[in-house]
Design brief:
GO terms for molecular function: isocitrate dehydrogenase (NADP+) activity; metal ion binding. The chain is an alpha/beta fold. Bound molecules: NADPH dihydro-nicotinamide-adenine-dinucleotide phosphate, 2-oxoglutaric acid and magnesium ion.
Length: 737
């Protein structure tokens, strides 16, 4: 039987699934739709990677690999919830939790001392960071706020911090020596393979022997100079202190899992320069690695004997007093922006700051103007342009502003997304040289020890597909589309040539399609958005990530409300549930007070499209009706304001799922296309209506107390399920469908 595959992930979305999936299964059971789950949680992926070393009863299949294969087939229909892209601290915490549960897994070896540890590290590094999305995203992305969502936000605007024209908030970015400045790009003429070597005066080191390439593929390489980065960071620390504004660093250490932690480490060492100068030898000895954040230093120092520890802690306090104030992640707990690289992720952190009057939290828990340090200048300027716009025009108004859907190039590990196995922290001064199979040099960069060199690829077919998707979206929504590409950037210049070429394959009569550099594109888009006009952004992979949080957060309060579709290149569908993360803060609240505020709206939207796609592919008219009625139910859900509240003892995720189910049943009962579904759900709708008070009371009564699900990364399924399904009345009705 044809299937919809639902992913089991982590944190808040995984909890929400415990309550929502039983509803989905009950509603679809009579329509010949088989819904199965596949585990791509961080814990599940660790278990799969080490299954050959675990006893049979602890082993787990590699569901990610299975889904990755499926994504290349026409029958794929996958619902993808957000999962953890693990930073090293998250990975270590998940390993520790599995070990406590009796899994004999090796520790993560920070600095491998032998071959065995080297092999262990390799296995873990495959799980680290953004390891799921690039495997499943065998298509480009189409992310937008559906009309119902946008209209709801216009009528019920979220809070927006006012902007003042004398705000001192700004973006600081490098003007030389960074990836943008040093980029070189080439189009590959003939399929073959590339070799990456570091050539020094005395030796030639092979960094990567074989990078397969296809004809028409765009390959680019660049280098971030360590010297330039350090002097830039030093200037910014001094400047933040002088201006008396917060110092904050915005990176994507999870998604850009090789380059960005190194940059993060340099920022921590620069901020705490005196401390590192004084304790250099000691920190070396105890294995401090601040690429994993300042928290790593604190945890290592905690293990020192009392005297030494007190000395270091005193110097840390002094450094914090002497340095500029740091933006805080949690002022109450003293957690700074520099503690854990996964705590501040640029796609969400910059929009959150812009929504909050351009301010972040200081150590006293008050909002303060901020220097937002974004070292590489490839995309940073879009944020400065947005900040300038807010300073000039004031905050955006969600009741009137237009919308910015995105068509993003990401298929087949496009651009920086696929750079991880081609990113190197350079160990010797010399030249990094990329040659093709016949030895011709494609490009070279002279490098110094400590520089970060990386190469990216984007294949031709994904580019063609991306251009087609942009034209289709522009046509379908009658909205101008802007390609955010900069002719003065090496990579973008190649893409512009291809976009111009492939646009000719389509009928673009009457469409407004432009190519603008990111700053011009920001100006153009923001002017229009202010006037209530819509503009599609057509971007590369990193801008896709940035813009699909920026605009949703400004327009509708969160990217959780986005429709997020990945039309897979071989005909299948990957339906992502929203565009945002996995909200660790929501889990904390749930465990402390039994209230989950995760909004599953993105999941409702994704499921409706998935059902429609299923109906289309399998000639299943019931599936199509289920999809249509789900969309209608979602609209009713919005009109009746059934989204979870943020406060305990009010409707939470579970209650919101009940209402969605009731509205869905009502819509199925009132449609007339399918008499069987109509009859079946008439009874169900009635049962929900008659028991509405009872169910909502049961769901509220379950709140207000701490919840134990025996774990964070690897909770006990049965406990999580029972915590997420506390209404016996609701459960009985679902069981009766
Ligand atoms: N597609 C994927 O798989 C993605 C995964 N991630 C992963 O998610 C984790 C956290 O990332 P981060 O970027 O900090 O994002 P978060 O999930 O923490 O989201 C940031 C904030 O947005 C709000 N929010 C996000 N989703 C929802 C929702 N469904 N309902 C209500 N509010 C929501 C919350 O605000 P408030 O706290 O005010 O309620 C939340 O704190 C990381 O492990 C990251 O790797 C990140 C992006 C995408
Ligand atoms: O893959 C990741 O780590 C994050 C992805 C993300 O943030 C996005 O796709 O918007
Ligand atoms: Mg994102």
């Amino acid at each position: 039987m044809a299937k919809i595959l639902y992913t089991k992930t982590d944190e808040a979305p995984a909890l929400a699934t415990q309550s929502f999936l039983p509803i989905v299964k009950a509603f679809t059971a009579s329509s010949n739709i088989n819904i199965e789950t596949r585990d791509i949680s961080l814990a599940g992926r660790i278990i799969a990677a080490f299954s050959d070393t675990l006893p049979t009863e602890q082993q787990g299949p590699d569901h990610l690999a299975e889904l990755g294969e499926l994504a290349k087939k026409p029958e794929a229909n996958i619902i993808k919830l957000p999962n953890i892209s693990a930073s090293i601290p998250q990975l270590k915490a998940a390993i520790a939790e599995l070990q406590e549960n009796g899994y004999a897994l090796p520790d993560y070896p920070d600095e491998p001392e032998n071959n065995e540890q080297e092999a262990t590290k390799k296995r873990y590094d495959k799980i680290k960071g953004s390891a799921v999305n690039p495997v499943l995203r065998e298509g480009n992305s189409d992310r937008r706020a559906p009309k119902a969502v946008k209209n709801f936000a216009k009528k019920n605007p979220h809070s927006m911090g006012a902007w003042s024209s004398d705000s001192e908030t700004h973006v600081a970015t490098m003007n030389h020596g960074d990836f943008r400045s040093n980029e070189k790009s080439a189009e590959i003429a003939k399929a073959g393979s590339l070799k990456i070597q570091l050539v020094t005066n005395s030796e030639t080191y092979t960094l990567k022997e074989n990078v397969p390439v296809l004809a028409g593929e765009v390959v680019d390489a660049s280098v971030m100079s360590k010297k330039a980065l350090l002097s830039f960071l030093k200037e910014q620390v001094t400047d933040a202190k002088e201006k008396n504004i917060l110092f904050s660093l915005h990176m994507k250490a999870t998604m850009m899992k090789v380059s960005d932690p190194i940059i993060f480490g340099h920022a921590v060492r620069t901020y705490f320069a005196d401390l590192f100068a004084k304790y250099d030898a000691l920190f070396d000895e105890i294995g401090v690695n601040v690429n994993n954040g300042f928290g790593n230093l604190l945890s290592k120092v905690a293990e020192l004997d009392a005297d030494k520890k007190a000395g270091v802690l005193k110097d840390i306090d002094e450094a914090l007093v002497n340095g500029p104030d740091l933006a805080m992640v949690n002022s109450d707990k003293g957690i700074t922006n520099l503690h854990v690289p996964s705590d501040v992720i640029i796609d969400a952190s910059m929009p959150a700051m812009i929504r909050n009057s351009g301010q972040m939290w200081n150590a006293e828990g008050k909002s303060q103007d901020t220097k937002a340090v974004i070292p590489d200048s490839s995309y940073a300027k879009l944020y400065q342009a947005t900040i300038d716009f807010c300073k000039q025009h004031g905050a955006f108004d969600p009741t009137t502003m237009g919308t910015v859907p995105n068509v993003g190039l990401m298929a087949q590990k496009a651009e920086e997304y696929g750079s991880h196995d081609k990113t190197f922290e350079i160990e010797h001064n010399g030249t990094v040289r990329v040659t093709n199979h016949d030895g011709t040099v494609i490009f070279d960069h002279s490098v110094e020890e400590g520089d970060i060199w990386r190469m990216c690829q984007v294949k031709d077919l994904p580019i063609q597909d991306w251009v087609k998707l942009a034209v289709n979206r522009s046509r379908a929504s009658n909205t101008p589309a802007v390609f955010w590409l900069d002719k003065n950037r090496a990579h973008d210049a190649q893409l512009i040539a291809k976009v111009e070429k492939y646009l000719k394959d389509h009928n673009t009569n009457g469409l407004d399609i432009r190519i603008l550099d990111p700053v011009e594109a920001t100006h153009f888009t923001l002017e229009r958005i202010k006037d209530g006009k819509d503009t599609i952004s057509v971007t590369g992979n990193v801008l896709r990530d940035y813009l699909t949080d920026l605009f949703p957060i400004l327009e509708v309060g969160t990217s959780a409300k986005m429709l997020s579709i990945v039309p897979l290149m071989n005909g299948g569908g990957l339906f992502e549930t929203g565009a945002g993360g996995s909200a660790p803060k929501h889990v904390q609240q749930f465990l402390e007070e039994g209230h989950l505020r995760w909004d599953s709206l993105g999941e409702f939207l994704a499921l409706a499209v998935s059902l429609d796609h299923f109906g289309e592919k399998n000639n299943n008219s019931k599936a199509k009706i289920l999809g249509e009625t789900l969309d209608d139910a979602t609209e009713k859900f919005l009109d009746n304001k059934r989204s979870p509240s943020r406060k305990v003892n009010e409707l939470d995720t579970r209650g919101s799922h009940f209402y969605l189910a009731m509205y869905w049943a009502q819509e199925l009962a009132s449609q007339t296309k399918d008499a069987d579904l109509q009859a079946q759900f008439k009874t169900v709708a009635q049962a929900f209506e008659e028991n509405e008070d009872k169910i909502t009371t049961e769901l509220i009564e379950a709140q207000g107390k701490a919840i134990n699900i025996d774990g964070y990364y690897f909770p006990e399924d049965a406990k999580a399920a029972s915590a997420m399904r506390p209404s016996e009345t609701l459960n009985n009705i679902l069981a009766s469908i």
